Amino acid sequence: MKKIMVTGALGQIGSELITKLRAEYGAENVLATDIRRIESDVTEAGPFEILDVTDAKKMHQLATDFGADTMMHMAALLSATAEENPVFAWNLNMGGLMNALEVSRELDMQFFTPSSIGAFGPSTPKQNTPQDTLQRPTTMYGVNKVSGELLCDYYFERFGLDTRGVRFPGLISNVAKPGGGTTDYAVEIYYKALEEGKYTSYIAEGTYMDMMYMPDALQAIVDLMEADPKKLIHRNAFNVTAMSFEPSQIAASIQKVMPNFEIAYQVDPVRQAIADSWPDAIDPTAAKDEWGFKTTYDLDKMTVDMLEKLKIKLAVN
Ligand code: SER
């Protein structure tokens, strides 16, 4: 990784990934691209170009002009938004991925794209979900993610493209808010705790999902990309997770810092159905064994850090 091009750079992961990559590899060596320009560090602190990932020609041109040797393809619709417009989701998620893989093949780039716990479905074992298991997702997002995992494996097997990837759980961060995901409640809850002292969850009590704090997620991307390829038995879609909790447990974690915080429930049937179709807790052993995946934040440590950072960001006491 010397010259890295990132799509979806203003998204939930991209916004922080760009900052980390620029710090580690040099600002001039990280090209951020996104379909829109929102003035921020991403657009101002290093190279930035507008790119619609369905435009293969422009993607190829930008990668060539930049001399990119690595592609990190982050542009995608999340689960709930994809359910609202499945055809658009297919075209964007699959068309964008196909273009990014093709450009990477043509220019012989190293390649990363994230899959998700959304790639699992109701028939997948819910506890300690294995790396290699049944994947029959019931959402358009999940269908996209499984197809993406297969496509990335195919490009490695067929063309020798150095594809790598992880299955991310819900990602929690204090920088960019997620948009249209099922796990977003675990981010919103911290904002509402500080702004209103209470939160109404659209996910029911007792619904477990895997989660991870953003700094651990970003480190996982870098560690996997830097890993010795000889040690990789899998290439794409490594299970990674830091914790599994349900809404009342994250509420209890917040109450340790803010004793008066209250949680209520008003379940959204669409997102609840998506959550119910996903595992409770996945097994990240393959990632640990093959490239040393590790995390540094558990629920309480994340809560303390989230509340501290958001207090400053939201200017509340
Ligand atoms: N956070 C994502 C979502 O909820 C899961 O990949 O859609």
Describe it.
It is a single chain. The protein is α/β, with parallel strands linked by helices and about 325 residues long. The chain has twelve helices and 16 strands. The protein folds into two domains: about 5-170 and about 215-240, 3-Layer(aba) Sandwich (Rossmann fold), CATH 3.40.50.720; about 170-210 and about 240-280 and about 295-315, Alpha-Beta Complex (UDP-galactose 4-epimerase, domain 1), CATH 3.90.25. Strand 1 (about 5), helix 1 and strand 2 form a beta-alpha-beta unit. The mean pLDDT is about 95. Bound molecules: serine. Serine binds near residues 79, 116, 118, 181 and 182.
Summary keywords:
globular; 6-stranded parallel sheet; alpha/beta; Rossmann fold; 16 strands; 317 residues; 12 helices; 3-stranded parallel sheet; 16% strand; 2 domains; UDP-galactose 4-epimerase, domain 1; binds serine
